Amino acid sequence: MAMISRAGRVSAAFVKIADTLVADFDVFDLLHTLVDESVGILDAAAAGLVLVDPAGDLQVMASTSEESQLVEVLQLEAGAGPCVDCYRTGAVVAVDDIAAQGSRWPLFQASALSQGFRSLHAVPMRLRSRTIGALNLFGHEAGPLTAEDAAIAQAFADVATISLLQERAARESAMINEQLQRALSSRILIEQAKGVIAQTSKVDMNAAFALLRGYARAHNQTIYETADKIVNRRISI
């Protein structure tokens, strides 16, 4: 089988992201596709995504691992860290060597190192003057992203941002806030469903989410719909 070129992999990733923009727009699926493809294309150890909610607070919306999710949650609780700064400034925040970052974000430094991460590249989800979140790429090794990888990461973030703010939500604030609020509410139910699957199937939380998402896609359901059925014991996986 012929090897797929880097350009081909990037193009395929954009196609996969675009495929989530169907009539039944599933925000949660879009965001998880974004972080999954970011890890696969950019060789990151993990990726996560935070979005601002209608109240102006950042929330973790997608993560490729429980470890990266923990680091992001701790940052948001402390109100300090590169992901938070990226959102607040609307600019890239790169931490090439977390161990050598100094005392700027001590809680982030301690939590990231304890989870095995040595570098972070945070990319703003921004359209003109509006920033709605950040895409965060974690590395197991110290060192910067290449200029090409940084550009691809920003392109992924831009596509997701435009998708969330696109014209089909153009009566803008009300519809976008409704979509984000629905996604935030969905996240709680989805976490509950992951716990149920992990317990009944004897798997970890990452594998539980993979089973949940796979079932939803196989049965043409949103992840939220499948999670609701699992939590209410209408189906089992």
UniProtKB/TrEMBL annotation:
SUPFAM superfamilies: CheY-like (SSF52172), GAF domain-like (SSF55781)
Domain ANTAR: 170-231
Lineage: Bacteria, Bacillati, Actinomycetota, Actinomycetes, Micrococcales
Record InterPro entries: ANTAR (IPR005561), CheY-like_superfamily (IPR011006), GAF (IPR003018), GAF-like_dom_sf (IPR029016), GAF_ANTAR (IPR012074), WH-like_DNA-bd_sf (IPR036388)
Record-given protein name: GAF and ANTAR domain-containing protein
Keyword Transferase belongs to the record: yes
UniProt entry tagged with the keyword Transcription: yes
Gene3D superfamilies hit by this protein: 3.30.450.40, Winged helix-like DNA-binding domain superfamily/Winged helix DNA-binding domain
Keywords: Kinase, Transcription, Transcription regulation, Transferase
Originating species: Arthrobacter humicola
